[in-house]
Design goal:
mainly alpha, single chain
């Protein structure tokens, strides 16, 4: 398989760099801990599997080629991320929050992946920029999807664990407010950067 090392390196760089999904997953880990954030992380990971399938099959290219549809998709994604940023910014401190407060759900994570412009840009770059098995396009796509799924799962677990290490900051009301606002701003900044792609 020609280009495997480059593909894996690019996969880690593109899927592991800070973006809307990784930042929201880190915030979830910080606010709710690793165990309660696993469902959300699984949703993000499986949502990316759907993004890979849509990208590899060409569906994304066909949809975005329709006149006027790309701006509508961008606005809908931006609205969803504004909602997420608001939820993060206004989350109460853990000490004051009900211990039964709902952590972000599997569906929320799955939806985030489906509307994440960075995810589509990364998958397009990885699927169009590398040919691991150029003589067998279907097998090539399957190998890329399998490898990317493993990389994304590992990256998401790492971001969730990184966030969980910040949980103590979420118990102090002042630290909680500062960290929540930082995460909300970073989420919006990552969205702005992803839209420019």
């Amino acid at each position: 398989m020609d280009g495997l090392a480059g593909f894996l390196l690019a996969s880690v760089a593109l899927t592991g760099s800070p973006g809307p999904a990784t930042l929201s997953l880190t915030a979830t880990g910080a606010a709710f801990g690793t165990r309660r954030g696993l469902g959300y992380g699984a949703g993000i990971t499986l949502g990316m599997l759907a993004v890979m399938a849509l990208t590899a099959s060409g569906v994304v290219a066909v949809v975005l080629a329709r006149p006027g549809l790309a701006p509508v998709v961008t606005v809908l994604a931006a609205l969803y991320f504004l909602y997420l940023a608001f939820r993060i910014a206004t989350a109460p401190p853990l000490a004051k929050a009900n211990s039964d407060a709902a952590a972000p759900s599997f569906i929320a994570g799955f939806t985030l992946s489906l509307v994440n412009p960075k995810g589509y840009a990364a998958m397009t770059a990885l699927f169009s920029g590398f040919a691991l098995l150029p003589q067998q396009p279907a097998v090539d796509a399957g190998v890329k999807i399998s490898l990317l799924f493993l990389v994304i799962a590992a990256v998401n677990i790492a971001w969730l664990l990184a966030g969980s290490s910040l949980t103590r900051l979420f118990r102090d009301p002042r630290s909680n407010r500062i960290v929540n606002l930082i995460f909300a701003v970073l989420l919006l900044a990552s969205l702005a950067a992803a839209i420019k792609w």
